[in-house]
Amino acid sequence: MDKKQVKRRIVLVPVPAQGHVTPIMQLGKALHSKGFSITVIQTQYNRVSSSQDFSDFQFLTIPGTLTDSDLKTLGALQFLMKLNEICEASFKHCLSQLLQEQGSGDDIACVIYDEYMYFSAAAPKEFQLPSVVFSTTNATAFVCRSVLAKVNADKFLIDMKDPEVQNSLFPGLDPLRYKDLPTSAFGTIEDIIKLYGEAVNTRTASAVIINSASCLESSSLSRLQLKLQVPVYPIGPLHIAASASSSLLEEDKSCIEWLNKQKPRTVIYISLGSLGRMETKDMLEMASGLSNSNQPFLWVIRPGSIPGSDWTESLPEEFSKLVSERGYIVKWAPQMEVLRNPAVGGFLSHCGWNSTLESIGEGVPMICRPITGDQKVNARYLESVWRIGVQLEGELVKETVERVVKRLIVDEEGADIRKRAIDLKEKVEASVRSGGSSCSSLHNFVNSLQTKSLCSFEIVPVQSQ
Ligand code: UDP
Question: Relative to the CA of 375, which ligand 1 atom is closest?
Answer without folding.
Answer: 25
